[in-house]
């Protein structure tokens, strides 16, 4: 497939919601070690609002699916919900009427990354979701430049996001609540970065190669 149509976007978000549900307790435990322990409930409530607002699968468009995601996350308390929400809003606006191709997806994710960095001020290496999102965005941009298929682009983005998420275990935070515990959080993965990896892995599993 060369276009993420509405049904693909719907299935991607559904798969991500299930993947998040399976990881929710572990991600909450990470936020308890390095933050305040509300990450899992924050994101679960955002995903519940999203699924309540999703259009029916057969009439879904890329824009309406990511629009529902954006609103669901923007209405969430905590730091990560609004940041994810702004990113999903940029992604929702990247698509054409029929869906998003590799170039549009790469542009939407790059724009979402820039928005999160503008709002939150985090750079790569600050032990946040940026450590997974920035390499995923770079991988998508490279895939778009190379004329890769969506499957190849998602595989590259998912792999890059996972490597980036794993890298946060070695980092000491300088942004967000994890910065309050400093060295104590060494060895603890950043839950926002792991969630970004789950997001692109769910896309890769949905869109295929
Ligand atoms: P809070 O810390 O307000 O309780 P959450 O628990 O919902 O917020 O989210 C924590 C996540 O937010 C972290 O794992 C990290 O990925 C992300 N985060 C925190 N601060 C920033 C920031 N300035 N920029 C980007 N992401 C951030
Ligand atoms: Mg928290
Ligand atoms: Mg909190």
Automatic annotation (TrEMBL):
Presence of the UniProt keyword Kinase in the record: yes
Keywords from the UniProt entry: Kinase, Transferase
GO BP, sorted A to Z: glycerol catabolic process
Residue span, DhaL domain: 7-205
Gene Ontology terms: cellular component: cytosol
PROSITE patterns: DHAL
Single Gene Ontology MF annotation: glycerone kinase activity
A Pfam family per the record: Dak2
Entry-linked PANTHER family: TRIOKINASE/FMN CYCLASE, TRIOKINASE_FMN CYCLASE
Name under which the protein is recorded: Dihydroxyacetone kinase subunit L
Organism for this UniProt entry: Schumannella soli
Gene name for this UniProt entry: dhaL
